[in-house]
Amino acid sequence: MDMVLSKMRLKNYDELYILPLYPQYASASSGSTIEKAFKIINKWWTIPEVNIIGQFYSRPEFIASVINRSKEFNLKDYDHIMFSYHGIPERHVDKVYLDGKPCADHSCESEINNENANCYKATCYATTRLLAKALEINDDFHSTCFQSRLGRDPWLMPYTDHTIERLAKEGKKKVLVFSPAFVSDCLETTIEIGEEYDELFKEHGGEKLQLVPSLNDYDDWAENLTKIIKDYTK
Fold it and tell me: pTM, whole model, 2 decimals?
C-alpha cells in the first residue's frame, strides 16, 4: 500500500478512491485497511479529496461473479451447501450497536435493517440469502457458518468445524462450500477449508468436502469490479 500510494501522490490526483476488497465490512478487515491508508495519506502536505467505497456484498456484480464460480459444479451432486465466512469475536459486532444491546438482539440472522446494516454478522447472513436465492436452493439445503477462530473469547457462531462434524454425523456424504467473505483464495480457503475441513469431514463419516474457488483473477470478476468502481466515480 505504501508504494502504490507513493506513486499516486506523485501523480497529484484531485481525488482518491479507497476500495478494501472485503465484501462485508468489519473493523478488523476493511476498517484496518482504511486506517492504514489514512495514516499514509495524513503525512502528505497536500491531501486530495478521499472517497471510501465500502462493503459490496449486495452488489449484483459481486453476487453474479460468485454464481459464475458455482457453475463449475452440479449442485444436485451434493447433499448440502455451506457458506463459510471468516469469523470475528462476538465483541466486535456488539460494538457496532450504539443502543447498548448486543448483536444477538438485532435480527442479524433474518434481515438487514437500519440498525444492523453495518454489522458484519448481519451482512454475512444477507450475503447467504442473496446467493441462496440466485442458486435457487431451499433454506434446509444450506448453512451459514464462521471459521478461523482464535483464542478463548466467543466468536461468531455457528462454527464451521462444528457444522462440518454435524453434517457428517447426520449422514451427509458430499458437501459444497462457498467462502463469500473472500474475493481471493488464501490459507483460509485452500488450506483450512480445502484440506483441513475436508479431512475433518471424512473423519466423521463424510466422503468429500468440495471448495468453490474464490473470484480470484477471473475475467468476469475483473469486469464486475471495474463496474462497481465506475458507478462510484461517475
Answer: 0.95
